[in-house]
Amino acid sequence: MYLRRAVCAASTLALMAGSAALAQDSTITIATVNNGDMIRMQGYTDQFTEETGIAVEWVTLEENVLRQRVTTDITTNGGQFDIMTIGMYETPIWGANGWLVPLDDLSEEYDVDDILPAMANGLSHDGTLYAAPFYGESSMIMYRTDLMEEAGLEMPESPTWEFIREAAAAMTDREADINGICLRGKAGWGEGGAFITAMSNSFGARWFDEEWNPQFDTEEWANTLTFFKEMMDESGPPGYATNGFNENLSLFQQGKCGMWIDATVAASFVTNPDESEVADSVGFALAPNTGLGKNANWLWAWALGIPSGTDQVDEAKQFIEWATSKEYIELVAENEGWANVPPGARTSLYENPEYQSVPFAQMTLDSINSADPNNPTVDPVPYVGVQFAAIPEFAGIATQVSQEFSAAYAGQQSVEEALEKAQAIATEEMEAAGYN
């Protein structure tokens, strides 16, 4: 056994040395989002460089800016990046256009079949994987168990929106700078736009009917936006119209939020005693519903894809295999604990007894499994996607629509005016694109 290990170790070292020799002096440039797990990954990059000889340059951007930069680069064949951090919206569309390198020849050791089906399906086109998930997420409720108890309430596993509003009001203490609820209001299709779209699904709303007609002039959308604004005005933080994921994460970690409904990936940060003042009093529940059969949770993966214009495909694939591997997960677990590994991407993680003991592991998996991108809404729709519609025109339309919604949250216009403008924007763009 010892001899076999020694031979294997020698072979591995030789392979690594060979890779380093082949790739020496090469540098890959990676565009990524400024989320905590990506920042953590950058801290381990030196180990990748030592193993392979491939240097890494990072371009780390705020979410809305990242989307603009990588979209511009790939549509113009700009060649700025060798790897892009993209998601379930872009990947199938860009893969179909031939803008991404297929990841159909990853190594046997990488074990591509271990990727959670929900993530693999969302990052594929015609059965071919075009981006590998660094982490996967849905959304769920994170809440202060101490404040809930003080309010004399008990969080159901699957609460209604009415309960959430009641609990938010009960937990709000303006003098102590505690807001009962923190939610995204920031403009951007993947920021506040993602949240309100997932929420609208639970209210029975949809972006388009089966004939691709925009639906913002419906009672369901009016109910969604009115409920959101009234609840946030009552119990949300000042300036919530400009708060996104990172802003709300900071508020929650500082003890200024009773509840936060957002990405499941945030759970490791709000329960980390080194980062969160309320780490020992955080509970979790499924995203809310209105009794119509849909919860207000989304499905997403931040994934690594290779633009077809790069001349460093092999080096880029080596990095993707390293960063999204089982071994990377184990590296983070060894150094920072199982609660801090990238979640939601691999089946084997949720079969690991050590990870199963992490307080939010099961709720994360339940939330991911309950999101159905093929049937995201109460009434039928012609599109795939939970918090987005997987058509090329969506990002542009939704960015404009989210700006109108944020203006309503900020009191610059009424909910009715915002929805009227959203209907006009979507109708004009869809007609121009030839949908109706």
What is the strand and helix layout of this fold?
Elements lengths: L1 H22 L3 E7 L2 H8 L1 H8 L2 E7 L1 H13 L7 E4 L3 H7 L20 H6 L1 E2 L2 E2 L2 E6 L1 E6 H6 L10 H11 L7 E4 L9 H11 L16 H17 L9 H9 L3 E7 L3 H4 L11 E5 L13 E6 L7 H11 L2 H11 L10 H5 L1 H4 L4 H10 L23 H16 L5 H18 L4
Parallel strand pairs: 1-2, 1-3, 8-9
Antiparallel strand pairs: 3-11, 4-5, 6-11, 7-9, 7-10
Short description:
With 436 residues, the protein is of the alpha/beta class. The chain is built from 19 helices and eleven strands. It has a five-stranded mixed beta sheet with strand order 2-1-3-11-6. Strands 8-9-7-10 form a four-stranded mixed beta sheet, sandwiched between helices. It has a two-stranded antiparallel sheet with strand order 4-5.
Report on the structure:
With 436 residues, the protein is of the alpha/beta class. The protein has 2 domains: 2-137 and 300-356, 3-Layer(aba) Sandwich (D-Maltodextrin-Binding Protein, domain 2), CATH 3.40.190.10; 139-297 and 373-432, Periplasmic binding protein-like II (D-Maltodextrin-Binding Protein, domain 2). The chain is 45% helix and 13% strand. It has 19 helices and 11 strands. The strands form 3 sheets. A 5-stranded mixed sheet has the order 2-1-3-11-6. It has a 4-stranded mixed sheet with strand order 8-9-7-10, with helices on both faces. A two-stranded antiparallel sheet has the order 4-5. Strand 4 and strand 5 (128-129) form a beta hairpin. Helix 1 (2-23) crosses helix 3 (45-52) and helix 18 packs antiparallel against helix 19 (415-432). The N and C termini lie far apart (68 Å). 48% of the residues are buried.
